[in-house]
Please model this.
Amino acid sequence: MASAAAPTVLVLNGPNLNMLGTREPEIYGAHTLIDIEASVKDRAHDLGLFVDFRQSNSEGELVTWIQEARLTASAIIINAAGYTHTSVAILDALQAFKGPIVEVHLSNIFRRETFRHHSYISGVATGVICGLGAKGYLLALDAVADKVARS
Ligand code: CA2
Model:
């Protein structure tokens, strides 16, 4: 008997996250984005999920990927990095996505500069995880696995 395809979780990473591991480890940890991708994909395999893991420095590319996810993904995990605090365009794209959305930040944005305390994404997110480093991505994946299984 054919088994159902694993639900896809789109994991989006915004600008400069490709630089993780090269500086500011006291804020963002020592992991590279490639390390995080590997651990997220390992966990996804255990949870029966397929992860499409992407990074872009371009706001428009992130918007396009979120639009495409309406047809291809069951859930979105997003660390929009600096665009978290500025992007109405990413907010608008996420508003049109019907599945669970988990916002992740490596650092605790509320212990940092006040301009980082506001997120355009939190108002449309199912949940928000910040300050737990790379583990936040794994916690987000556990949360969406639960949501997708119940839907
Ligand atoms: O804590 C997070 O995950 C952030 O989304 C990271 C963003 C920051 O603008 C947000 O306020 C919080 C910055 C990502 C840049 O990361 C770098 C890491 C190492 C070297 C250069 C950039």
Notes: Residues 8-150 form a domain with the Rossmann fold fold (CATH 3.40.50.9100). Residues 16-17, 19-20, 22-24, 28, 79, 81-82, 84, 105-107, 109, 116 surround CA2 (CB under 6 Å). The first helix runs from residue 25 to 28.
